[in-house]
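Title: Request for sanity check on Lysoplasmalogenase prediction

Description:
We are preparing a figure and want to confirm that the structure record we downloaded matches what your pipeline produces today. Could someone re-run it with the sequence below and paste the raw structure tokens into this thread? We only need the token string, no images.
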Amino acid sequence: MPRKPALATAASSSVYVALAATDTYLAGRPGAAARRARFLVKPALMPALSTAFVTATRGRRSALARGTAAAQFCSWAGDTALLGRSEPAFLTGVGSFAAAHVAYGTAFTSVRGPRRPTGLREAGALWATTAPLITLAARRREPRLAGPVAGYATIISAMFASSTMLGPQLPASSRASIQAGTGLFLLSDTLLGIQKFLLPQPSARLERAVMATYTLGQGLIALGVATVPENE
């Protein structure tokens, strides 16, 4: 009977939702107390999601499931690093999330179907409209960040593109969930770039939007992959 794994998955998912809501709220709060609280809450996000995901996909050895689990681990490293305010912490976070997007892209490519030019065009258009702007802004703020930011923008755009080419052997609901998740992830990072490089002062609302779209995006990707039948 799958009752116990189902209960464990539901419990872990509930914990993730609660942590995501809490961190989204804290992200927009000023002061040292909120920042200290985030050092406890934010690093717990991905372990909670990963626990739910691993429980739901227990026994699966597909490249899609393994790649998603690897991406979640890299995302945890990125979450933790970006709690710091130094340039090395930022670059570590960028590198960790770049690795996460490579893992996601590799996972999605393992179940790709016929090419969908529309998805590729959308990804290319998103890259063309966001990457040069954010890269230029990063260069003006700190020239050494221009290269990493440009590379990261390219990697996440490629990850999004790979999610638009999932094969028809996957359930339509799973494909829709994954694609919505990658789109929100891309939106979150775009908002983060605007916050960090374009605004003269941090915006509490924008910071909350970054975390809301990020945590929802991660959750939708995990849900989409978890609902793919085991034989796919």
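Thanks, this matches our download. The chain is about 80% helix and 0% strand.
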